[in-house]
Amino acid sequence: MAPSAPALAPVLEVFASIQGEGAYVGEPQTFLRLRGCPLRCRWCDTPGSWRVHEHDRARVGGRELADRDSAWASPFQAACWIRDAEAGGLARTVSVTGGEPLLWPGFLLGLRSMLGERRLHLETAGAHPRTLARVLDGFDHVSLDLKPELDLDPPEELVLPDSAPRAASDEPAPRTRDDWRRAREACLELVRERDACGKIVVSGERGAADFVPLFDEVERVNPKLLVVLQPATPIGGATAPSHELLEALLDLAAERALVTRVLPQVHRYLRVP
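RESULT FIELD:
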């Protein structure tokens, strides 16, 4: 039997920087950002990662690659780009972000085997629990978004160009409130007893009541999970929350005995990628 072709994924960029979000904030990491996302979060700070175009090119260490169609990478190619982005420095934890990395499960499974003993982290919207279950054992940490439905426009199916060498995962994104509740609860259950955190982006357009279902779900399904409240960075039309809103959310978390921290996007303040 002929060997199977390697799983590929469209890479937007690979760069070494400092983690600015979540449980590992401040840690030097190398980021592998994949293209493609069906979600339309109103406060998204990387909308350029939503779509996959014909002849996309990856950026590695801040440099756009010259080869046409260079964005589609195998796990081996991505591992080589990770080392290139580190410019010969010490091997760092690798954080896979997006876009939505769970659109490319075969690639994620192959990447684990290419990185040896390195720690591998996953940043995901928590919209694809079936795929998360498939790849979870390959990751040392999961940063799981917990999203209020009011912050989401309807999802859009990822349309790939005819020349794309691979299809994305066929697991559909949640559409209704019940879809989202089931997806969040399934993902929260999957990361129980694992190194994980839940991240809630808090924008100024919301009130404390909008977040009660999220806190209730964490309390019910995964009460030991670290919950990070991330004030929205005021870019792209998003507004930062008030101090009063953050205090109200901390009170909601305390009433449920949840471990909670307020943490802005630190990399924005450091002016690093």
